[in-house]
Fold this sequence. Notes:
The chain is α+β, with helices and mostly antiparallel strands and about 220 residues long. Helix content is about 15%, strand content about 35%. The protein is built from five helices and 14 strands. The chain is globular. About 30% of the residues are buried. The mean pLDDT is about 95.
Amino acid sequence: xxxxxxxxxxxxxxxxxxxxxxxxxxxxxxxxxxxxxxxxxxxxxxxxxxxxxxxxxxxxxxxxxxxxxxxxxxxxxxxxxxxxxxxxxxxxxxxxxxxxxxxxxxxxxxxxxxxxxxxxxxxxxxxxxxxxxxxxxxxxxxxxxxxxxxxxxxxxxxxxxxxxxxxxxxxxxxxxxxxxxxxxxxxxxxxxxxxxxxxxxxxxxxxxxxxxxxx
Length: 215
């Protein structure tokens, strides 16, 4: 019963009774819009990798910790994706955010499952540049680059459907001058895009709500 005494007549779903695709659509369709990060890594073979992830979040402010999850390739018997393999090997990575409208096409192309010996930078036309503290490339076109060192990886699920929650501490930040004004970032100038269930969305319609309250 609700606080008004009326029973809800909405659909009630048991997530344990759903298959992977149904549950993914339920979660990804409700948790919207989601920011998109381009996570860049360096493979054991020296190949520079970059992949879009729409599960990025702030796990902690002090210390600064970012988190994101990576799922195994279900169509390939649960094989780990290159991004996760590289993070496990190097213990370092770069989170490049947000994805502006100008990077949308390259971001979408980078989501393809290229072989491990193929660099997404070469396929997408994005520009890799050296980080200062970590052994991983940064995306030149991204407004902000967070150099991160791995803190922990927490796994959920069972083979072949395993999701790995990656926690990384930010050790250096790079911000394009054009997006830093009056002593702080200006997100509206970045024209970031977000992820819905399958399609993407723009953030061009922005509004403020003044909070007024008394104790």
